[in-house]
Amino acid sequence: MTALLRTVLAALTAALVSVVAPSPAPASASVAASAACETDPATPKRQLRAMWISSVANIDWPSRTGLSVSAQQAEFRAWLDLAVRKRINAVIVQVRPTADAFWPSPHEPWSQWLTGTQGRDPGYDPLAFMVNEAHARNLEFHAWFNPYRIANHDDPSRLVSTHPARRNPGWRFAYGGKLYYNPGIPEVRAFIENAIMDAVSRYDVDGAHLDDYFYPYPVSGQTIPDSATYDRYGAGFDTIGDWRRDNVNLLVRELDQRIHAAKPHVSFGISPFGIWRNAGTDPLGSRTSGLQSYDAIYADSREWVKQGWVDYISPQIYWHIGFSTAAYEVLTAWWSNVVRDTGVRLVVGQAAYRAGASGQDAAWQDPAELSDHLHDNRRHPEVVGDVFFSAKDVRADRIGAFTRVVDAHYTRPALLPARGSGSAPGAPSITSAARASDGVRLAWTGSGTAYAVYRVDGARSSADPCFFADARNLVTTTRQTTFTDTTAGGSAYTYYVSALNRTHQEGSPSAGRVVEAGGGTFSVVVDNAGSGFTASANWGTSAFSGQLHGTDYRFADPVRASDPAWFRAAVPSDGNYRVEVWYPSDAGYNSATPYIVATSGGNRTVVVDQRSGGGQWRALGTYTLAAGTYDVVGVSRWTSATGYVIADAVRITRA
Hints:
Pfam families: GHL10, Golvesin_C. By secondary structure, the chain is an alpha/beta fold. α2 (about 70-85) runs parallel beside α4, α6 runs parallel beside α8 and α12 packs parallel to α14 (about 400-410). The chain is built from 14 helices and 30 strands. Helices cover about 20% and strands about 25% of the residues. It has an eight-stranded parallel β-barrel, surrounded by six helices. Strands 20-23-28-25-26 form a five-stranded antiparallel β-sheet. The chain folds into three domains: about 50-410, TIM Barrel; about 430-515, Immunoglobulins (Immunoglobulin-like, Sandwich), CATH 2.60.40.10; about 525-655, Galactose-binding domain-like (Jelly Rolls), CATH 2.60.120.260.
């Protein structure tokens, strides 16, 4: 992405922010009254933030077959804990990867990806376990089903003897070295729907999700062997392509009807290939020139949206900004236009697997590429969130790309987008709020499925609706009626709690509850010339700038290696601390110097432009630090920007 385009995107984003703030309103005022408040696009009130957890071929979970029950469960909890740390609020988990099941299904065998043997009982109910664990963390759980794939091989004898595809050989075909259910057979469609509905009906899932595999992706020199099926069932269709698309449309439309008839609150979504059709083929298509899912895999994703057969669409826009074949910014604009005024929500599928990966285009070696996608999203109000493929790539965080996403877009929690027209719950009542050794402990009563906790600085006698207009004051969401705010410092605060129903309609906030100031003060400065500073021999020493702190400062050339200079400090107790840095600035210094903060939840990276703003304390933010003496703040050399990176001084102050 060029510097000019990035500048234009930033300007467009800023122009979207509303600027008229109303007068303060009583605490009973509706949260919806905050529509005219000034909001920050970096802290949206509502946003779906999800990651795909893939089970096929043990991509994400379980990490391999044959793990013990306790090991499988520990791994899954770790994925959910990762989601919480990254302020993700939903997981999309593959529970039917290859015509098999991650629950005791009466229709299909246990998945081989659990035990290594198809049909073998894993010793517990994974789907029940996963849903319960997700909800305990107030994460939405979307059950992900692959509709037609039977196996990643073409040998039916390798399927368990009771497999429906073995007992009904006429239901399947082989193509491209894999086995598929034939979408054109009505009995097959009914069977697939029944298999999916068993999970939707029996488990407390929040969503049902299909991926992009409908008819098989084309294989050179091969033809899908369904001509006999077309001869039998294709009357009334001019072409076999039209018939195939109708077969998929029937599955989508009928699933939509059946899911909402069984559980109206469950959200139905599909993640199709990112291109419907190219404008060169169809004037309704996008300005792209790639594979067309309408023609290649018979997925008429635009029709699903226009007919309202899905609650959300999550196109896999797995290409970088400016890509000549299929540019990210072209496709987000196209899909935004498709969903506009339909009631279908647009959630972009993001290629976290490309960021920093070997062999990917140069654009994907830029740590900012993935974050820039979300900046582009801000131009389109139709985009209500993102899903990242896949969990292991979120965890890998190659070149710090996902850290960039979190630092730029996920600094605060977010409520999930509301769906439907359900009545919002009444306002909760905060029954207690008191300081404790681990933070501020809150308790309340209410009738919500979940709750949002807000914290406003200072003792407030009344609530301004603008307190709740975006997520700047949102501390957490939870399904519990108690919460300990471990991020609270020693200042006075006013807390509010609102209740949400199952489809995320939010009621009015509670009356505010004031917590008075308390706690001791602590502040320490670590200079590069002091004993708490360490750096390799690659870091030089200079007193060139008059903006230095103390007698000198350290500098180093940027490289593709971290080689950090560290500032060590004695943190007196677990808690929240404001971290500030001092550096001399110069036009020739680095525009993207990475500062590393060793928080109790893992390292956080903040990028600072050292070309300006020097000669003073500059805040990196407030972080939860663990007690002890250790390297708290580092200055990394790993940046693609040019110019020296500077390490001079750090100040750490109890918040």
